[in-house]
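Before the break, one more example. Copy the sequence into your notebook; we will annotate it together after we see the structure.
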Amino acid sequence: MTEPSEPRPPLPPFTLETATLKVRRAEDAWNSVDPERVAKAYTVDSRWRNRDEFLQGGPAIVAFLDRKWRRELGYRLIKEIWAFADDRIAVRFAYEYRLASGEWFRAYGNENWAFDENGLMGERHASINDLPIQAAERLFLWDRSGPRPADHPGLSSLGL
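Here is what the structure looks like once it is written out:
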């Protein structure tokens, strides 16, 4: 976990440009499917609500993400800014994944984030719903070797 004194730009107070950049950096980190990398964006005592789970602190976040990505295979995520103010950002997102059994899903959700003065997320509240899809209905088809390409459409462009 990142120490509270280590800045993680962009820092609050956010502008539309810096909030949008913060959202894209979060998307890129989550698409790495690397729990340790993702956890570096959160305060050491960060509090999460993810669906029906309540977590606090780095070790709990890393364990949660490790468990998540062992189950959710082929994970690809797109986040889009919804609103921002000072030290808070709201996003909507969708991600696609499959289970080991081969069933595909698209998960839709919203997140509310609160940041400290160093740009670390101290709170993350996520509401998520899963929709079963057929493999042929997948829309997030970029190469798993990296983040979503800059020319890949976002949620609004995809009509999601």
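The radius of gyration is 15 Å. The mean pLDDT is 95. Try to locate both features in your own notes.
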